[in-house]
């Protein structure tokens, strides 16, 4: 009889044995930095993975819990001199843990079955949930729950989760963006726009900004109203076959040979989207197309740096430090359709201090670091101040802040400390999870801080010029 399939035993062994155990990655690991325990480091986790691949260890509950204690921030990949592909190891290790069933229990199985196995497999289901959440907020039920004291009668963790509930946008991308958006001026490129899942519910305005910026920079933008999840949630949580199914759906919907680029504005999604070829390795129908897909997927910052940005026109001089009255700023907000507190970039005739937090999967997974900064520096009225430890994880890490709240909160406190040190009015970041995490951190501290995607700040600059 053939041996049962194992994600780690059947993985290319050169990937498993590549780690030299030199330890140069240890200072970059947030969990190791917090605990100083070898098992909580990349090196320790790889040792466990290799033991399973070698048949010296079978998956245990302790092994599975350690794999889920890892943030998956991939900072180790940036530090590693040997080029160890920890992202591939990490995903297969979690898939191994799930296949073994060592973490199975009725509650966990029900939650995973509903969310990963059902909700995110069809975004129409997610939209229904989003509509219900929007009603909960619009009808005042959220205010009532938070102010009535009822949460004190419920488990503490439930109250913490309710406090993290994001504001749902009043309209989805399909309501705001035409299926075909023509280029403004000469058409140079034809691109597809991925609107995402949680991104669409919470940040559909960022999708609108992204399409506008693309159109202003010579792109005809194709944005189908019915789209699919990219599958990163599934791949990062051990559901390999579901991730493969979603990858095939996306390739079918966006044939890569029909576009100059397939654009994503979410750092975490983009990192996964660029590795469909490995996900579909051995698939006789899709593997070749997946290689072409990987080449065409571009993060919005990466694409604009590659093709060039049309500079926003402005009368901003930067010489005056006088602050205008809030009423005048508010009237300007109304004119350009931007509502924000603090005021958006350009409301005052002075530079706005902006700092930039790097999404882990954008900087470590996709190696995109200079491009977002170049975009921000191209915006008139922006004074970019570097954030200390800008590439240190904020604790969001997909759903890590939901599953590992204690460690996630430690990382958020560390991040907020550095943000305060910059005295920035705006913090920009290119990933929805990071945006939400920092919004929650600012709320908890009562900090008057605006969070925004860099492309939103660029879109605002274009609108002011008009």
In short:
The chain is an alpha/beta fold and 466 residues long. Helices cover 50% and strands 7% of the residues.
> What's the overall geometry?
globular
Output the structural class: alpha/beta
Number of strand elements: 9
Adjacency order of strands in the biggest sheet = 1-3-2-4-5
Distance between the termini: 71 Å
Helix tally equals 25
Low-pLDDT runs of 5+ residues are 317-341
Tag the structure with descriptive keywords:
466 residues, alpha/beta, globular, five-stranded mixed beta sheet
What does the model show?
The protein is an alpha/beta fold and 466 residues long. 50% of the residues lie in helices and 7% in strands. The strands form 2 sheets. The protein has a 5-stranded mixed β-sheet. It starts with 12 loop residues before the first helix and ends with a helix. Mean pLDDT is 91; it is low at 317-341.
């Amino acid at each position: 009889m053939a041996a049962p399939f194992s994600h780690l035993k059947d993985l290319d062994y050169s990937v498993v044995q590549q780690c030299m155990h030199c330890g140069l990655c240890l200072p970059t690991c947030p969990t190791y930095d917090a605990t100083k325990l070898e098992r909580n480091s990349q090196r320790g986790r790889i040792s466990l993975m290799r033991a399973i691949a070698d048949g010296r260890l079978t998956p245990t509950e302790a092994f599975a819990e350690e794999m889920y204690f890892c943030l998956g921030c991939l900072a180790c990949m940036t530090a590693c001199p040997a080029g160890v592909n920890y992202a591939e190891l990490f995903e297969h290790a979690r898939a191994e843990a799930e296949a073994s069933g060592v973490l199975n229990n009725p509650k966990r199985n029900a939650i995973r079955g509903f969310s990963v196995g059902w909700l995110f497999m069809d975004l129409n289901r997610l939209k229904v949930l989003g509509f219900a959440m929007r009603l909960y907020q619009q009808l005042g039920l959220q205010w009532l729950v938070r102010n009535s004291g009822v949460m004190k009668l419920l488990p503490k963790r439930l109250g913490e989760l309710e406090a993290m509930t994001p504001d749902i946008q009043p309209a989805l991308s399909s309501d705001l963006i035409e299926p075909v958006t023509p280029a403004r001026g000469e058409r140079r490129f034809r691109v597809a726009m991925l609107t995402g899942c949680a991104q669409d519910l919470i940040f559909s305005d960022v999708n609108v900004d992204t399409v506008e910026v693309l159109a202003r920079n010579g792109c005809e933008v194709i944005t189908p109203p019915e789209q699919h999840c990219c599958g990163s949630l599934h791949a990062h949580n051990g559901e390999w076959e579901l991730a493969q199914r979603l990858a095939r759906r996306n390739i079918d919907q966006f044939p890569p040979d029909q576009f100059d680029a397939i654009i994503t504005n979410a750092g975490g999604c983009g990192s996964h989207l660029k590795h469909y070829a490995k996900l579909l390795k051995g698939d006789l129908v899709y593997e070749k197309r997946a290689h072409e897909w990987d080449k065409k997927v571009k993060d919005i910052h990466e694409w604009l740096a590659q093709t060039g940005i049309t500079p926003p026109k402005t009368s901003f001089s930067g010489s005056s430090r006088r602050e205008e009255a809030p009423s005048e700023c508010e009237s300007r907000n109304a004119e350009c359709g931007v509502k924000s507190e603090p005021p958006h970039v350009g409301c005052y005739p002075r530079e706005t201090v902006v700092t930039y937090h790097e999404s882990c999967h954008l900087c470590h997974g996709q190696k995109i670091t200079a491009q977002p900064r170049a975009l921000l520096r191209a915006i008139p009225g922006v004074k970019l101040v570097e954030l200390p430890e800008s590439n240190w994880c904020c604790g969001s890490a997909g759903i890590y802040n939901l599953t590992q709240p204690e460690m996630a909160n430690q990382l958020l406190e560390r991040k907020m400390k550095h943000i305060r040190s910059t005295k920035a009015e705006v913090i920009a970041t290119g990933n929805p999870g990071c945006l939400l995490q920092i919004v929650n951190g600012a709320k908890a501290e009562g900090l008057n801080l605006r969070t925004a995607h860099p492309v939103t700040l660029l879109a605002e600059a274009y609108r002011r010029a008009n």
